[in-house]
Every structure is written in structure tokens, then in C-alpha cells.
Write a structure and sequence with these properties.
Strand order of the largest sheet: 3-2-1-4-5-6-11
Structural class: alpha/beta
CATH topology of the largest domain: Rossmann fold
Order of helices and strands: EHEEHEHHEHEEHEEEHEEHEEHH
Number of domains: 2
Helix content: 25-40%
Number of strands: 14
Shape: globular
Strand content: 15-25%
Largest sheet: 7 strands, parallel
């Protein structure tokens, strides 16, 4: 099997590349390195290009001749998408269409798509969401993911493509070998932001909203270790070569932790009592978003190994400490 990975130099992409390599799968990463890092590829092949350039992605596919594509490349910050929606519709939608056109031109029919739990918007109740729940994104980021899912569905109906879309919940943690981890220039994920505050990189950690309809007033999320998420991609690839195709799967643990609970656990792991302040809500944040992942477990046999918030934070902390030594 040969797999072209767009955005493979990023956080989730690089962990998936490592999982693919461990399975003996040949890969080529297509990445513009705007937010990713070539060192995160751990020696895997890289083609530097941008999906806005059709000829660039077409050339990469033509010469590599992959059997399948895994599509990670996207802008991912919810708040930024609210402030600059056109950027998100251009990068996440228009550039994905370039990729799909290049796939069709080169007769590549299989794709695993990096979608998001943001497609659900604000669930109607504080229960884990199933794939059949209403999709009503409340920010442009979520809209672009849902619109891409619709494009893939329509193409599948036209027999142009076979796909699996994975709706991620909150990816967190780092490689257990501490070879790779989250290394964004502007950290926005809660656990990473909290750990960097513990390290002294930020003066304080802000909590955006303490008046949500949750037990402690802060948002509740489902945090999944990035290695379990990476393994879901491996299973999805194998499924596309079997009898499972054109499916959407949630990927999360079904456990919800509030912002305050996560902060408390970070302080416990690091043994550092960093400063925390409370501020107003951000636009585009639902109060409760937790996965029902029974479908991926039943159909793909996905069995997560790292469903433990303290373990997740520990691996991320070890990575952050390594970053401090190398910077």
C-alpha cells in the first residue's frame, strides 16, 4: 500500500505517519510546512507544495501513484475561523477540491478525511453525540468540515470516490517515545496551553467562559490521545480495501472533562500551581461535546489504548520538557 498524506508534517499527521510506518506502509507527505515541521516526519519522504497550486498536488500524485490519500491539511483554529471565514473556506474547501480533482485526474479513488466534532455545533443535550445526530456547525471551521463531508458523499454517489471521514474530538498528548508532539507556534489547545503556562511561557492561562450550563460552569470536552487517533486512520485505510466505505466515524473516548478539571489535572501532573484567570466566552464554543464512538469500535474494531487523562497529560508534559531543552 502507498499512501499520500496531506499535512503529514503537522501534529496528528506526523503521529499517523509513524503508525503507518510501523505497519510497513509506504508514504509521501505533501505539506507546505506553514504549521508543520520536516523533523516531525522522522525521515519519511516529503514533497513541499501547497494545495492551492493544482499542478503541484497533481504532480505529486502522478509521480508517487498512491493507492489512497489521507487528507489532514487544513486551517484548524475555531476562533480564527470566526474572525477570518474566507481564509477557512479557501484553505479547507477550495484547496480540498483541488486535491479531489487531482485524485480524479490520476484515477485515485480512496481517501480518509480528517473531519471534526465541530460539525455537530451545539448538541441539544449533554449526552455523547452519535454520527446520526444533527449537524449544525456554529463556526466557519465546522462548516468547512461538514461541507467537505457532503462533497465526498456526493462524489461517492457518482462512483468517483470511496471515503471514510473521521470526526475527531480533542486530540491531545504526544508520542510515547517522545519523538514527536504538538509544536504549533501559537498554541491554542487547552492542554498544551496549560503546560506551556506551567513552563512559564505564558503569564497565565485564561478560561473562556465560566457560566456554561455544566456542573462547574466551564466547557466539557472529550480528550483523545493522538496515538489512538492515529491508529483509527490505519484501520480506516485497511477498511477501504475491504468492504467498508463511504462511512463517517466519531473518534473519541466518551469521557467528558471540564476546562477546570483539565487544569487541575495539569497542575497535579506538573506539580506547578500556575496562574489562571477567567474571561468572557469565545464565539463558537459549545458547552458540551463528547463522542459516542460505538460505531468505529463495532465496524472497524477500534480499541483505544490510552483512555486516561493523566496519561495523556503526562505524555504531553514529557514532550514539552523535551522542547524546552531543544529550543
Amino acid at each position: 500500500m502507498k499512501v499520500l498524506v496531506t499535512g503529514g508534517a503537522g501534529y496528528i499527521g506526523s503521529h499517523t505517519l509513524k503508525a503507518l510506518r510501523n505497519e510497513g506502509i509506504e508514504t509521501l507527505t505533501f505539506d507546505n510546512l506553514s504549521t508543520g515541521h520536516d523533523w516531525a516526519l522522522l525521515g519519511s519522504k516529503l514533497y513541499i507544495g501547497d494545495l492551492s497550486d493544482f499542478e503541484s498536488i497533481n504532480k505529486a500524485i502522478f509521480y508517487f501513484k498512491p493507492d489512497t490519500v489521507i487528507h489532514f491539511a487544513a486551517s484548524i483554529q475555531v476562533g480564527e475561523s470566526v474572525l477570518n471565514p474566507l481564509l477557512y473556506y479557501t484553505n479547507n474547501l477550495k484547496n480540498t477540491i483541488n486535491l479531489l480533482n487531482a485524485m480524479i485526474k490520476n484515477d485515485i479513488k480512496r481517501i480518509v478525511f480528517s473531519s471534526s466534532a465541530a460539525v455537530y455545533g451545539t448538541p441539544q443535550n449533554n449526552k455523547p453525540v452519535q454520527e446520526t445526530c444533527t449537524t449544525a456547525p456554529i463556526n466557519p471551521y465546522g462548516q468547512t468540515k461538514l461541507m467537505t463531508e457532503k462533497i465526498l458523499s456526493d462524489m461517492a454517489c457518482a462512483n468517483q470516490i470511496e471515503y471514510i471521514a473521521l470526526r475527531y474530538f480533542n486530540a491531545a498528548g504526544a508520542d510515547k517515545d517522545t519523538e514527536i508532539g504538538q509544536a504549533y507556534k501559537f498554541a491554542t489547545h487547552l492542554i498544551t496551553r496549560a503546560l506551556k503556562t506551567a513552563k512559564g511561557e505564558f503569564e497565565k492561562l485564561e478560561i473562556y467562559g465560566t457560566d456554561y450550563p455544566t456542573p462547574d460552569g466551564t466547557c466539557i470536552r472529550d480528550y483523545i490521545h493522538v496515538d489512538d487517533l492515529a491508529f483509527a486512520h490505519v484501520l480506516s485505510l485497511k477498511a477501504l480495501f475491504g468492504n467498508i466505505k463511504n462511512e463517517i466515524f466519531n473518534v473519541g473516548y466518551g469521557n467528558g472533562y471540564s476546562v477546570k478539571e483539565v487544569i487541575g489535572k495539569v497542575k497535579k501532573v506538573t506539580n506547578i500551581d500556575f496562574k489562571v484567570s477567567e474571561s468572557a466566552r469565545r464565539e463558537g464554543d459549545p458547552p458540551f461535546l463528547v463522542a459516542d464512538s460505538s460505531k468505529i469500535k463495532q465496524l472497524l474494531g477500534w480499541l483505544p489504548k490510552y483512555n486516561d487523562l493523566e496519561y495523556i497529560i503526562n505524555t504531553a508534559w514529557e514532550w514539552e520538557k523535551k522542547l524546552s531543552k531543544t529550543q
